[in-house]
Amino acid sequence: MARAGVVAMGMVPVVGPFAGMLDSEELAGGVDRFRERVLARFRDHEDVRLVLAPEQVLTPVLLRELSEAAASAPWIALFLDTYERTGLYLDHWLHETMTTDRHGAMPATTVVVTAGQRPLDTALWGGLSDFVTDVPLSPFTEAEARGLLAGKGVTAEPVVEEVLRLTGGLPVLVSTLAESRPADPDDVGDPSATAVERFLKWERDPARRAAALACALPRWLDADVFRAVTDCPQEQLEPLYAWLRGMPFVGERGGGRLRYHDVVRTPMLRAERSRSPRGWAERQRRLAWTFGGWREETEAAGDEPWADETWRSLRLAEVYHLLCAGERDALPQALRDFVPACDAGAGVAAQWARLLVDAGQDADTAAVAEWGTELTAALDTEGVVAALGLVLRRAVLDAPTQARARVVRGDELRGRAAYPQALAEYDRAVALDPELAVAYRHRAGIRRELGDDDAALADLDRAVALEPDNSWYVALRGEHHRLARHDAEAVRDLSEAIRLDAANEFAWASRGATRERSGDLDAALADLGRALDLKPDYAWALARRARVWRGLDDPRRQLADLDQALALNPDWPWARCERGDALRAAGRDEEAVADFDRALSLDPAYISAYASRGASLANLGRHTEALDDLNRAVGLRPGYVWALCRRAVLFAAMERLTEARADVERIRELDSGALERFSDTDRAVLGSALAG
């Protein structure tokens, strides 16, 4: 070992801790003098080889003895521990011994187990992957930890719970505490210092040890965070950061960020908190200020910070450190932040709940951890609605925050098609904060879905009055006017939205659709083209432009836009039906039926898809199926003139003239002009039914 230099490097177990006491040059000189005395005193060549090349002499002996043992044992296992250190001088020897016969044959029933912090060197062992199994060592499960404790006679439940809490299931710590056989929770010492010493036992440089402990405080690291948390001279920062990145308990998290392994970070945090509670709080406070400053810098770059992942990440870190520092308003602020986190999506809400769990555990603050656990459980079982319900019932929130929470709950309920419950939440939000424009905007959507267009427009009027420069709100009101067929009002609002924000692709597309319906096809084409310039993958604008191409009698471009729209959104029933109609008009009824089939599989209540499929089936001569579809369409919408026209023609083709005449009479009652729109072919089929 001295010849390999491992003692001087402090790499040998047991010897390692004393290596710092030895002078490397003196040690090397001593080795040389020792070798000279050996050469002078040993009697033969084999004695000299034993000292100068012990592995060449002793490995064959080891292999012979293993072979002898293999004759009386089904398996032999060789365990090589602390391999991240011993592997430096054992790895090549082990590879040679196991893969060649240079020193003799390894018994086939031998299993070699290396235990270390790093995987095997792929450059050396990569070609033997079929003979190697990696077994990641994770913390004990609760059952495993209890089993080990019971084996040592530790079974009292309060004691077991305290051991589980303090060790986090880390095997070496569970074992350490089990050996002391505590009989009372007060007898269970905190093993954190022992754990930290084990993790850093090979590192004697005080600056490195201090950096490793300091960098355990943040939940994640990059070079900027490292500089903020590490107290060392500027010239040492880069070397220290490079060293830390190479530590086995530090892993890449993505995006250049590092993260400590939990089994290492948790005892480090506990040891630092126990050593200096005031120092812990002050360092946590400084980190919160650091992350808060970075967050404010990103805030200036965008109007919607909660939609910005970078902003959210910095805010998460800021609130985490405020909670760890024990700031008085930290928990109420975290709960207020949970509301917009839910609005940003269930995934973001889960991150916020996890933040509370982590901060509560890391700072040993039961109230914070309990909130995080309960919110996580609510999100996992019943989703955002339940989690926000918990916050609304138990947290102290101001009226604007409560109103915002009601809006988010309303949105979730609306997504579940629970429209009356969603409307009730929006009503509560408006009552709590009459100046909350977003509440009126969202209530308008639910009111329209419930069929109350006038109330929906009244809500949008209020939202626009509160935020007159909000292009999105003005555009939404224009879209509601379009849906209500108020074309002049729609064009007015959509033009104003474009004036407020010329990059509002929604306003351009909606105005284009309005102009298409009113017959201004050139203006519609220009508007929809502008929307697609701003957002090339805008499926709705593509499908609407397809209608313009239909009006301009350009079926090739019509189908091209519909194909692109469906490539972007293949499960869109309306676009499927639109393409089916285009294919039917082009005489491609078999393909049209396939699109109608798909549309109806996505939306079984799609009335016009039944009517259109009935028309294509009739063209294909499949009259019975066609009649079933047309009957279904008319049954769902008795005043559906187009479906009645197609059914009248079909009845006539099937020589069911009485029924054909009945449909013609019904068409005359509903829309006499529809009779004038029959094609010559349809008129010929209808014959006397139409004349009557």
From TrEMBL:
TPR repeats lie at residues 403-436, 437-470, 505-538, 573-606, 607-640. It comes from the Bacteria. Pfam families: TPR_11. Transmembrane segments: none annotated. Keywords: Repeat, TPR repeat. GO terms for cellular component: cell outer membrane. InterPro entries: TPR-like_helical_dom_sf (IPR011990), TPR_rpt (IPR019734), Ycf3 (IPR050498). One of its GO terms (biological process) is receptor-mediated virion attachment to host cell. Gene3D superfamilies: Tetratricopeptide repeat domain. PANTHER family: TETRATRICOPEPTIDE REPEAT PROTEIN 6, UDP-N-ACETYLGLUCOSAMINE--PEPTIDE N-ACETYLGLUCOSAMINYLTRANSFERASE SPINDLY-RELATED. This is Uncharacterized protein. It comes from Streptomyces afghaniensis 772.
